[in-house]
């Protein structure tokens, strides 16, 4: 069977709705003879009678009623196709792949952004992936991710744009019952940890935080004694809870809690903060305009959410 012409289907639907060929021709802005030929060609196409003609007008046959129902649905879908393509071109419909580190997901801003994005663009499907900063950035380079929330801006990736969107304070994570828990009700000076064994997030997975902690300890006058490196920040907390040492983690990790773990703020003199970056490819992203527009709309929403919450998050901007 040949491809059905939508113009003939529209002519048929209009005739059925009007119940009169003359009125249907007027509605379609064509003459009656061409309309009659369109209807005849449609009947010839299916090899069945679709309309019963009476002196007072026309009515669809039983088979014609089936075609009328299906044709209306098809025409409605065709009418909406233009709007669908416009939404896709503007980045408001399609699929987007978003990555984040485990600690980024614990920061209230990231799930709030994802929720808001779903509300504003309900016809975009977000595929989420959790991994370390290095792996996420490499996935952006390999084009298996579109955007990512990371903690470390890895060097040597000129094709990526990595923007710091906020930063949060770092906290000392101590085993429950540690002497410092009893001695401090306020911020802890970093040099009070000089004799402690440190549990740190493994450097290849979190180079930025790892190096920042070491640099802060050096400024405080000591080199930290690292007793264990863990693959994830959550693993650090488990080891702290087991009493194997202390750790320094982003403030958002407090939301995770952890059995046997107590969190204390660091003094301002430590100058330790955990930044959060938004990373994406420069230029054409996935090498097509629809994906580029979608990533642009996502980045714009992130920035608008930052502006809306500006007064509540001044401490996270390092201002």
Automatic annotation (TrEMBL):
This is LysR family transcriptional regulator. Residues 4-61 form the HTH lysR-type domain. Keywords: DNA-binding, Transcription, Transcription regulation. It comes from Rouxiella chamberiensis. Pfam families: HTH_1 (PF00126), LysR_substrate (PF03466). Belongs to the LysR transcriptional regulatory family. The keyword GTP-binding does not apply. CDD domains: PBP2_BudR.
């Amino acid at each position: 069977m040949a491809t059905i012409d939508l113009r003939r289907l529209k002519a048929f639907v209009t005739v059925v709705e009007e119940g009169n060929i003359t009125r249907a021709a007027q509605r379609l802005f064509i003459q009656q003879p061409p309309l009659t030929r369109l209807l005849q060609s449609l009947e010839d196409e299916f090899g069945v009678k679709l309309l019963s003609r009476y002196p007072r007008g026309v009515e669809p046959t039983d088979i014609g009623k089936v075609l009328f129902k299906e044709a209306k649905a098809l025409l409605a879908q065709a009418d909406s196709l233009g709007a669908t393509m416009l939404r896709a071109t503007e980045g408001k419909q399609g699929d987007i792949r978003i990555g984040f580190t485990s600690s980024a997901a614990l920061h209230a801003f990231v799930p709030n952004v994802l929720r808001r994005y779903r509300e504003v663009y309900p016809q975009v499907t977000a595929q989420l992936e959790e991994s370390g900063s290095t792996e996420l950035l490499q996935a952006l380079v390999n084009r298996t991710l579109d955007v990512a929330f990371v903690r470390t801006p890895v060097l040597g990736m000129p094709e990526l744009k990595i923007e710091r969107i906020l930063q949060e304070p770092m906290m000392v994570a101590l085993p429950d019952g540690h002497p410092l828990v009893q001695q401090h009700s306020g911020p802890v000076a970093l040099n009070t940890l000089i004799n402690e064994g440190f549990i740190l997030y493994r450097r290849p997975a979190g180079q930025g935080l790892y190096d920042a902690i070491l640099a802060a300890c050096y400024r405080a006058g000591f080199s930290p004694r690292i007793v264990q490196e863990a693959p994830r920040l959550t693993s650090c907390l488990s080891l702290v809870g087991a009493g194997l040492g202390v750790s320094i983690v982003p403030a958002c990790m407090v939301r995770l809690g952890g059995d046997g773990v107590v969190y204390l703020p660091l003094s301002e003199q430590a100058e330790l903060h955990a930044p959060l970056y938004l990373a994406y490819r420069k230029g054409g992203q996935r090498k097509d305009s629809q994906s580029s527009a979608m990533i642009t709309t996502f980045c714009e929403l992130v920035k608008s959410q930052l502006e809306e919450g500006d007064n509540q998050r001044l401490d996270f901007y390092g201002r």
